[in-house]
Amino acid sequence: MELYDSIITATRALLAGTEPRRWDYDPAHVWRDTGESELVMLRDAAFELGGSGCASANFTCVTSSEALVERDEVLLYGKDLGELKGDVSFARLAFLLSDELSGDDEAAYQAIRDMEFVKYHVFPEGYMVRISSESNREQVRLSKTAVARGVSFRGIGGAYIAGYHKNPHVRRVQLVFVTDNGAVAELAKTAKKVDGITRTLTHILEGIPTDCGSCDLKPICDEVEGMREMHFGMRAKQ
Ligand code: SF4
Q: Which domain holds residue 177?
């Protein structure tokens, strides 16, 4: 699975100007997951990530390149939750090392979707997430209680990593949080590209003709290595 590799590389280049804080995944430092969505009322909120018109971005990239995801870890670019004093721009990115996705292309695509959907099943305590799949935004309301108890991105990232590992295809996870304003606006553009790849995969699996000259998806296939090969490979098998 190489479709998202160029996105992972470009994202790292985008963030390269800042040294992140980095924590290896440690099950002893995972913030409690309540197992169900929790309502954090505005009056109980300390601040919001990606709230009040701040930029927000969220995307997931799956790769089978061991070199791109070397270990389970959490990276933070910007301030940690205990250091924030008000609403900020926010991005959460997940880079997942998968096993070689076997079976036909449709099964591989479904496996990617299942890995992406893990984000809807992680419920850190005092950390209310609202996701907009149309705009690729992820907005989070932090409760005052969670902040007083010392919630951190290390613990929240740990909860996500534990969630991703419930999927049998996921071998390693690099979870990246960004609270740096300028970077998030750029990452929102990257999130659109990732969404474009996923939509193109959907259309390919719906069986569109292999006529690149009249295909609306050509800009994406021109940019993403492996997409065209995938479509023509599927056609050859039919
Ligand atoms: S390979 Fe060609 S026909 Fe297939 S989706 Fe890409 S541009 Fe369209």
A: 5-237
pLDDT in tens, 13-63: 999 988 999 999 999 999 999 999 899 999 999 999 998 889 999 999 999
Count of residues making up the chain = 238
HSE-CB of 67 using CA atoms within 13 angstroms: 3
Is 234 near ligand 1, meaning CB less than 6 Å away?
no
* 84 CA to centre of ligand 1 in angstroms: 45
Task: Please name which of 224, 233, 159, 207 lies closest in space to residue 9, comparing C-alpha atoms.
Answer: 224
Ligand 1 within 6 A of CB of 54: no
Entry pTM = 0.91
How many domains, in total, are found in the chain? 1
The preferred substitution site among 204, 234, 238 for testing ligand 1, maximizing ligand atoms within 8 Å of CB, is: 204
